[in-house]
Fold:
Amino acid sequence: MIQSSNGRVTTSANGASQPAAHQPERERTMAGKVITVTSGKGGVGKTTTTANLAVALAAGGHKVVCLDADIGLRNLDVVMGLENRIVYDLVDVVEGRARLRQAMIKDKRLPELYLIPAAQTRDKSAVSPSDMIKLCNDLRGEVDYILVDSPAGIERGFRNAVAPADQVLIVTNPEVSAVRDADRIVGLLEAEEKGPGHLIINRLKPEMVKRGDMLSTDDVLDILAIPLIGVVPEDEGILVSTNRGAPAAMDEKSRAGQAFRDIARRLRGEDVPFMPLDDNKGFWQKLAARFTRSG
Amino acid sequence: MSNWFERLLGRGTPSSAQSAKERLQFVLIHDRTDLSPAVLETLKDEIIAVISKHVEIDADGVEINLSQTQRENRLVANIPLLAAPGARRRSRK
Structure:
C-alpha cells in the first residue's frame, strides 16, 4: 500500500500492517460484491450512507473499498475524514497515471477499509460506464465489498456508478421530491436490468410521522413498492460526525449509526429486525385514512 | 360517508402527510406511464365516443382513472350502461 502524509509517499508491503492475531475471523467471499448507493435527488444521504456502510462492513471484519463516483463534486473523502490523504484519484487510475493500489487510501481506524476518491477538477465525462466496470473487475478478486457513492441525477455520473453494480441501494427521504426522484431511479434501474434495488429511508422523524406531518415508512413503501433494507432516523449526531470526519457507525451510542450497522448486517444476508422507531400513525389517523382512501 | 366519518373524528382536512401521499401517487402514475393529465382527458373523450358507438352509456357518470398496485399501473374505466328502450331498467329492491 502506498500511504501519503504531508505529501511524502512511502510504500509498505501489502497486508503487513496488521499482526495476524488481531484480524477477526472472516469468510472471504469468492469475489467482491459491488454495491452502488444512489438516490436521484441530491442531499438525501447517499454519501453519509456509503461512508457508514463501509465502516460498518469493515468493522465486521470485511475488506471494503469505497469509490467516490461523484467526479467534480467529491465528498466521500471529507465525510470519512480522509481528505488530507489524497494523492491519486479515480480519474488518475482510469487515465493510467496511477495504479489502483496507489489511489487506495487506507483508513487507519479500521483493519481493511480503503477509499478511492473522486477527482475534483474534472467532470463526469472523464469516466465511462465501461471504465467503471473494468476498475471494479480489477478490484473484485481482492476485496469483499466495493461500495460506490453515486452522484445525484440521472445522467452520466449515475450511469457510471450503476454500471458495475451487483446490487443497488436507493436512498430516499420521507418527502415528496425525494420519493418522486427515487421512483424515477427505480424505473431507470429496471430498464438497465439492475432493478428494482433496495430502499433506505433516511432522516425519518417519528414524532412528525405521528402528528401526520411526515410520510411514514409504510406510506413510502406503498408508493415505491420495492424491498426495504433500512430506515435511518433523523439524528443531529450525523452533522457532528461529518464535522469530525468520523462516520456515526463507529459510535456505539449513535442511533443513526445503529441503523447503518443493521443495514450492513442485512447486506451480509443476516435477518435483522427493524429498530422500533415508533413511526406508526396514531390509531385515529390510521382509521381515518382507511375510510378516506380513494382507491 | 367518508366526510361524515371525518367529521366524527373531528378532522375536516386530511393531514399533510396524507396529502403528500395522494399527490405523489397521482404524480407518479403520470411520470411512470408518460401519460400526462391532458392526454388522459383526450383519452377519456375518445373512450366515451368509441363505446357509445356500440352501446348506450351514461356519459356523465363515466369515471376513468389511473391506479397503482405495487408497481403495476392500471387505467380503470367505470362506465354506466343504459338499458335499451323498453327493457327493464332496475331490479326490484
About this structure: DSSP finds twelve helices and ten strands in chain A.
